[in-house]
Amino acid sequence: MPLRATLALPALALALAAAAPPPGGTLADVDPFIGTGGQGHTFPGAVVPFGMVQLSPDTDTACVIRACYDHAAGYRHDDPTIQGFSHTHFSGAGHSDLGDILVMPVSGEAVLLEPGDAARPGSGYRSRFSHDEETASPGYYAVTLADARVRAEMTAGTRIGVHRYRFRPSDAAHLVLDLRSSLYDYPGKILWSSLRLHPDGTITGMRETRGWAPARKLFFAMRFSAPLTGHAFVSTEEDVPYKGFQGPGRGSDAVAERAGRALVARLDFGRLDRPLEVRVAISSVDAAGALANLAAEPGDFDAVRARAQEAWSRELGRIEIDAPTPMRRMLATALYHSLIAPSIAGDSDGRFRGPDDQVHQADGFTFRSTFSLWDTFRAEHPLLTLIQPERVNSDIVRSLVASQEASPHSILPVWQFQGRETWTMIGYHAVPVIADAYLKGIRGFDAAAALDAMVKSARYAPYGGLGDYMARGYVAIDREPEAASKTVEYAYDDWTIARMARALSRGDLAAEFDKRAGYWRNTFDTRTGFVRARKADGTFRAPFDPTAINYGSDYTEGNAWQYSWFVPHDQAGLFRLMGGDRAVIARLDRMFEFDTSKLDYSHAEDIAGLIGQYIHGNEPSHHVAYLYNYAGAPWRTQERLRQIVESQYKPTPDGLSGNDDLGQMSAWLLFTGLGFYPVAPGSLEYVIGRPFVHRAALTLPNGKRFTIVADGLDDSRPYVGAVTLNGRPLARSFLRHKEIMAGGELRFRMQAAPNRRWATGPSARPYSASSPPR
Length: 774
Hints:
By secondary structure, this protein is of the alpha+beta class. Among the domains are: 12-314, Beta-galactosidase, Chain A, domain 5, CATH 2.70.98.10; 322-346 and 621-774, GH92 mannosidase fold. The strands form 11 sheets. A 9-stranded antiparallel beta sheet has the order 6-7-8-9-17-13-12-11-15. It has a 6-stranded mixed beta sheet with strand order 18-32-33-37-34-35. The radius of gyration is 26 Å and the shape is globular. InterPro entries: 6-hairpin_glycosidase_sf, GH-type_carb-bd, GH92_a_mannosidase_put, GH92_N, Glyco_hydro_92, PNGase. Residues 1-20 form the signal peptide. This is Glycoside hydrolase family 92 protein. GO terms for molecular function: carbohydrate binding; peptide-N4-(N-acetyl-beta-glucosaminyl)asparagine amidase activity.
């Protein structure tokens, strides 16, 4: 149990009252603590929609065995102490990094410069806290630090974070500024750092780290509402000359400065009769950029917090939700988590640091990064095409193309943050993001340049076995790991290239990539009925166990059960190879009902949320429940969706069964709650499931509204009896994108028993590439 602090602070009641979330609307339903426990890997701190700064508490940064994974977002709800507040965090990632520029308030005369041991109070600057004195809402976080005797509040702007600390008037006030602290904090990560105190009391600095992304540079500027009464810049290891990037030379205006690999600062403010506010801006370009970013967002804590709340009210207000309270909270929070990334990574003057480690100038758009594309191409980005298309066209697509143009390998981002490529996961899934946006009519970017970037990525032979894939029609497992997964994912990406090429009248490219889109067939073993890895000599690798999950094996974070369904662009073609509708329905049922009691997946930390061999905590399964529709059994999809939602989501800190993965888990729930899901981005269709809301309304960017109504929905009536679109019966199990964008009403009549006649015929089923045109 967390420590229940009994500390009473002056003005604490006032602070708690100010922290209360605003009444009414989607904003008030958001609970940033959902996903901060279990393996959700979300953070509770302050951020604005797509903001560069994510100012949040870090409960631990130690990297011991699984601790890096468990603390990927810096904060775990079951930890009893807070180490400090840092300015950059991933929302739900399956890997650790960031945690930049950690600040911690300290009271009293003695200031310890090490965080100390969480099990030994007083051994360092970390502090115990209680969830009873902790609160969070969009754009705001507050907590009482018991050992520090401080009430801490956080808010954020686009490129700034603002702290407010209420010290006891009788206590000397200090801050510890620790440049050594970092998530995924293994020895040697900090390559270099520097601190500089300017005559006006401003502190600037930088650090270069090697972590998940190599040679990542981050600069910052920090100002205070009270003057410094003293300071110390300390290096806690012997300074070692560094021949790499060191930032600008000594400035003539520097009151003090220090450089090294292990810097920590003590900042003294004496006894204060009012709260101390700390304004911090960051930049990946230079210190001048951080100073300019700080100046671009003026105002005190309350002004910045008001702007943050206004921004969240506007963006969250694009979807109105009427549902039972637990579902409303989960869906509102899912929408909130879906709007955190891709994060802004460019400065207020348009400069940004690209994957070539050079500074570039964005022309007419804001550079964005934090692209977890293997996860987010599935539902997160399709969601943004509905509710954030202005950001998709002006920023996201242009940022992807700008990154490709600056890439030393001429390839689109794979898993990128702050402009730096990690090469994590597989596929070239920026491709479907771009194609889906263009095919949905989103413009504002150079489509020809975007298609060129897509093609260059798909033809880059050194990447992930693409040379073999282009030459053989599959990735060879004895030449490249995870070959089965790569083959089917490349084939889907290629299909989206063909779709966009055809839309741009590039028949030559369309023919090339249509052929490649069929390469998934080269991995399907008709004898076993599974997608399998093949060797360079054409044989399937043996021995074969469809339940085996091992990193670097035939599959990526999954096994044959999950990956044998990954043909989102041609499920009908896959189903024919599997033996037709009845065989497919039986196989899907077997997947969900598989007895896994004798299987041990504890070695695979990303495998979570099992329902048989369906693994909701990992993305390859996310479309599978909707596949019954393609086999003419939509009522089975409705049953499985209820099973998934009820077992995998809760309005609690452990309410996500797996990593939120930069919004993908949340976007899945949001789409599913509305009653439809984008199984194949690029098809311009959404597969109808069943709603989990009484009513929802989307305010579309064209000014129209699309409303979903579920008549009679309750626990006793989980099945769709009938569907109407704008008052007319809808006898198919899919919805077209243009039908949503036209506005109107999608109405479900819910009932207790399944309707086994609705949307069962071949013409009523969703798109498949090999099905007859309709």
